[in-house]
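Review form for a predicted model. The reviewer records the input and the model, then writes brief findings.
Reviewer: anonymous (R2)
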Amino acid sequence: MKRFIIGTLAFIGAMSVLFVVGLIGLMVLASASAPTVPSNLVLELDLEGPLPEYVLSNSLSGAFGEDPTTVRDVVDALEKAGDDPRVKSLVARVGNPGSAAAAQELRDAVKAFRAKGKKAVAYADTFGEEGNGTMGYYVASAFDEVYIQPSGDLTITGLSFETPFARDAFAKLGVTPRYHKRAEYKNAVNTYTEQGYNAPHREATERFTQSLFGQVVRGIAEDRKLTEDVVRGLIDKAPLFGQEAVDSKLVDGLRYRDEVMASVKKDAGDGAELLYAHKYLERAGRPHTSGDTIALVYGVGGVSRGKSQDSPLGGGQVMGGDSVAAALRKAAEDPRVKAIVFRVDSPGGSYTASDTVRREVQRAKEAGKPVIVTMGTYAASGGYFVAMDADRIVAQPGTLTGSIGVYSGKFVTQAFWEKLGVNFETIAAGRNAAMYGTDEDFTPEQEARAEAAMDTIYSDFTRRAAAGRKMPLEKLQGLAKGRVWTGEDALANGLVDALGGYPKALAIAKELAKLPADARVNVEVYPRKKATSEVLSELLGQTGDNSEDDAAAVSALSPWAPLLEGVRGVYAFGARMGLFEHPRGSLYAPMPHASWE
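Model under review:
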């Protein structure tokens, strides 16, 4: 019996060793056969649709395919390729880049690539067929050459925003929006309470529209070597047909995709190959992977208490206060980290969750770690709240910024249900237990408490913003009132410190960390991206690494999972539209519909 046991153990040990050796062998073979970067390469970009800002570390988006290419992926790929002699040029199909700030981040990356002596060519079948192609062309104009196919048009008709107003519709339904806000420019709730623009709402919207439009006109004029007056005239004449676009010097020629591709490969030389940017990044690696560590933390989506999450059914990404705070804590506690770059792309959300994140920014600074915020499409309301205590704030000229204000409230639906023959009765213990219930309006006492809450939050917001920006309170209060600014105007008003994107924030991080401007640094994302197996393990409820305070496990195999995910998506959308408000107050900025989206 003893020999049998010893023999069995020996066999198991031998098999284990063989398994490990075999696994190592497979890894070596895989490494040896891994695709390499061609010696003569044309980098290819697909900018037909908006790029996501970030993929959550616990996301399953890449479990059954590739992760989507992010804004940072493109910025990093172009920076790496600019210094890579194997990369001869760049070709990109350009369509709808998304927001003005996203367009500017891409433009900056393309122009930095060109500044290193590399050629960049953009093409499209058309810019804005039966729609507005202004923002897409704005990106394309940063390239050396721009082409559309002979049947294409140049629909650069300018910028416009649409805001729906439904006060009368709610009245017909028997629904009464009962909201409180601070202050007059805080117009996120005007969709429910107004039937058109009031004076402050119109003033703010007109100003940031004109600011964005001016940025677009200046960019196109500079890149196409035209005057701003000429560009404005062409925009007013648009849509421009193919040959008109060429004659106007906005397009360099009428070519189909195959003709563009043949031309760029010919210019690159014999044997030139095309390789998509994300594939290039996988093979060549990212820039900034050695030297002192700079932490990169993301805060993307509407701010909510709890964990960050996203919904595959369209609910969008949620910036969980607990998750982002934990990432900031870990970066601050890591002795390798010399500075923290905090990427914020958020229209706002929960006041308390925003304050949770703000506190960790403050604590990181107290721990001697400089914090530099770089803003994406928007960093407004709660998105600005989480950023305002940073050492430096960097925004794109088109970043929607500020909206220092608050609102809260509810819909009173009693009359609506009466029309349907439905009656709700409430039994409660506590005078204000049903204060935020939708069946009855606020009592005078409850109204007073709701107004007091707005005063408290607004006072806290403005006081902290003034301290964070080292600005007299009276001046800050004049810039607040819930007003949204472009990054360009925010810089002029002292709400941000510089204009730019990832590279600008990294340069400032080196400066504040007392590193040479040309120092090599290792940019490390906190928390790290989890492997698919780890995410699945957590979803299946197994014990995993919880050191990063990641999302609570929910069984993906539950028969109710699809239904719950759908409800979550609906809830996230409703929260974004202000339908489900936290009683303490919501720090949301208004986001009217832009015609280029």
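Findings: Confidence is low (pLDDT under 50) at residues 16-32, 532-536, 542-582, 593-597.
Further findings: The first helix runs from residue 2 to 32.
Recommendation: see findings above.
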